[in-house]
């Protein structure tokens, strides 16, 4: 756990410095710990260090960890592709969903969200790099999808999420992230509830913060390489 503690402290400092460098408010960026394939014990240890928000990609694995950690008031985010037959479990057990990319899934989440829970926080996933292999609605389709989701009960439309094409070219990274920021600001004018731009991972976190990310999703740099 000591290495995770060191990583957590280091990432916190990196976020702080990147935020300052960008001239943004010190609390403008939230760290989302991506805990897929990590143990409940790892999550518990990180919670004890102060982390509260965790992101999971796989429904069944996540449900087991949510049950094992039910004594902790963790804020759970679902960030992976959503299969229709898993939407009920997601609607019942998560606080946020970042990977809504079509109306059918949003409708199912709305219908299946239990009435005793607050509205489910929704981010629309945008395929900003137009990759055929990647989930997400195309940027030009995002406005229509947001308009439809905004009409659904039991959902709270909060923002956009993106996973730009993997590249080591900093210019290409920045272009994709800047495009997301522009799209976010355009849609925010029509949907003032949008306050979350979920983008930036271990390899592009600093540029994402410079380009306006409000939530960065960090896994490997936090927990170390997967075994």
Instruction: Using the alpha-carbon principal axes, give the shape.
Output: globular
> Order of helices and strands, N to C?
HEHEHEHEHEHEHEHEH
Number of strands: 8
Tell me the radius of gyration.
Answer: 17 Å
Q: Fraction of residues in helices?
A: 40-55%
Helix-and-strand structural type: alpha/beta
Strand content: 15-25%
Question: What does this entry look like structurally?
Answer:
- The chain is α/β, with parallel strands linked by helices and 227 residues long.
- 41% of the residues lie in helices and 18% in strands.
- It has nine helices and eight strands.
- An eight-stranded parallel sheet has the order 7-6-5-4-3-2-1-8.
- The protein is globular.
- The two termini are 15 Å apart.
- The relative contact order is 0.15.
How are the SSEs ordered, and which strands pair?
Elements: H1 2-21, E1 30-34, H2 40-48, E2 53-56, H3 59-68, E3 75-78, H4 87-93, E4 96-100, H5 103-112, E5 120-126, H6 142-149, E6 155-162, H7 170-188, E7 196-198, H8 205-210, E8 215-218, H9 220-223
Parallel strand pairs: 1-2, 1-8, 2-3, 3-4, 4-5, 5-6, 6-7
Helix pairs in contact: 4-5
Task: Describe the structure concisely.
The protein is 41% helix and 18% strand.
Output the keywords.
8-stranded parallel β-sheet; 18% strand; 227 residues; alpha/beta
